[in-house]
Amino acid sequence: MTFDTLENAAAGTQTPLAEVLEHIPFNSEGLIPAVAQDADSREVLMLAWMNREALARTLDEGYACYWSRSRQSLWRKGETSGHQQRLHELRLDCDGDAVLLLVKQTGPACHTNRPSCFYLLVDNDQVRVTSEPV
């Protein structure tokens, strides 16, 4: 079942995951953007990228796994810091070109030790830091 078909499906319609995953439109580098959001507070924590293997590992293992574009390798969130993201729920957007991970975050999500990577607020003609490192 393609995403076009799912757009018109009634609430409660179910489709096999394997079939849906086959229709994800990964970009030319084989990646899809993935937004991590706190499952409780709904605060957006970070944006990362996933390839097919990272998506499969996240679903299989229950912890967020991403593709590091700088290292060109899989990256398990928290593998060095211990600040893991336990998967609570995974959603795809309407046309399948973005992933939303609702996670239970251990420790800060950002490599700067801030709770979220989105701590830079554009305020008129200034950018303001909105949180301290934890």
Short description:
The chain has helices at residues 3-7, 17-21, 52-61; strands spanning 32-38, 44-50, 65-68, 73-76, 85-92, 99-105, 120-123, 126-129. The protein is of the alpha+beta class and 134 residues long. The protein has a domain at 26-107: Phosphoribosyl-AMP cyclohydrolase (Ubiquitin-like (UB roll)), CATH 3.10.20.
Order of the strands making up the biggest sheet: 2-1-6-5
The CATH architecture of the domain at 26-107 comes to: Roll
Instruction: Give the helices and strands as they follow along the chain.
Output: HHEEHEEEEEE
Distance between the termini: 45 Å
Structure description:
The protein has 134 residues and is an alpha+beta fold. The chain is built from three helices and eight strands, in the order ααββαββββββ. The strands form three sheets. The chain has a four-stranded mixed beta sheet with strand order 2-1-6-5, covered by helices on one side. It is globular.
